[in-house]
TrEMBL record:
PROSITE patterns: CRYSTALLIN_BETA_GAMMA (PS50915). InterPro entries: Beta/Gamma-Crystallin, Beta/gamma_crystallin, G_crystallin-like. One of its GO terms (molecular function) is structural constituent of eye lens. Transmembrane segments: none annotated. Belongs to the beta/gamma-crystallin family. SUPFAM superfamilies: gamma-Crystallin-like. Residues 2-40, 41-83, 131-173 form the Beta/gamma crystallin 'Greek key' domain. Crystallins are the dominant structural components of the vertebrate eye lens. This is Beta-crystallin S-1-like. Keywords: Eye lens protein, Repeat. GO terms for biological process: lens development in camera-type eye; visual perception.
Length: 240
């Protein structure tokens, strides 16, 4: 079961409320939210009651102030929880027009600039076939966030947006280690004999590794060997 703790003040101070299930109205538990701890599972926090307003996609870790979750203000009024996605594939199709019309492009990896790859700034419909994704209205994973789970989105209002503008999107990938630690990884298409990979454990820990292995022109998922210390950790790439 997932767990999230909301705090009224920064750095996990002040009145707090612990939640382990969806809640359509948090107003009676705290008046403002300036820090959050996520213990497990994915969470989507909403600015307004009934899952309305700005969305904030949260993974396990500590957020000492609302800027850490790219918040626009200190208002959190509802939340939803989603279990870790344990499937092995990620696939999403985006469309130029509503109802899956116009130009279509299929994605299986992160996209820091929709315009550079799709050649359109507007996405009017979308079919998430596998995995969890986060959409952003600006390039490079900035701006308003929208949590996308498997399903058909026939118009942009279906994912909670008031505009068809999409600047970027990326996968939510969790690797559960043997000790129960959760590492959030990215999917990459390796094009060079050596590549740099960033692995994060929540928002506060970031480890970068240089991977010397043969050229791979396919999608890979990278796992961290949690039995070693971070300074000597072994990273292996498994193609699928």
């Amino acid at each position: 079961m997932g767990k999230i703790i909301f705090y009224e003040d920064r750095n996990f101070q002040g009145r707090h409320y612990e939640c382990s299930t969806d809640c359509a109205d948090l107003q009676s538990y705290f008046s403002r939210c300036n820090s959050i701890r996520v213990d497990s599972d994915y969470w989507v926090a909403y600015e307004k009651p009934n899952y309305m307003g700005y969305q904030y996609v949260l993974t396990r870790g500590e957020y000492p102030d609302y800027q850490r979750w790219m918040g626009y203000n200190d208002s959190i009024r509802s939340c939803r929880t989603y279990p870790y996605y344990r499937g092995g594939s990620y696939k999403m199709r985006v469309y130029e027009r509503p109802e899956f019309g116009g130009q279509m492009m299929e994605f299986m990896d992160d996209c820091p600039s929709v315009y550079d790859r799709f050649h359109y700034r507007d996405i009017h419909s979308c079919n998430v076939m596998d995995g969890y994704w986060t959409m952003y209205d600006q390039p490079n994973y900035r701006g308003r966030q929208y949590f996308m789970r498997p399903g058909e989105y026939r118009r942009f209002s279906d994912w909670g947006s008031s505009s068809s503008t999409v600047g970027s999107f990326r996968l939510l990938v969790a690797v559960i280690g043997p000790s129960g630690d959760i590492f959030y990884c990215r999917m990459y298409q390796f094009q060079h004999p050596q590549a740099h990979l960033q692995i994060t454990s929540g928002p506060s820990t970031s480890l970068t590794y240089k991977l010397p292995f043969a050229k791979l022109a396919q999608i890979c998922c990278v796992f961290l060997d949690l039995s070693a210390q971070p300074s000597t950790a072994v990273v292996t790439a498994t193609a699928f």
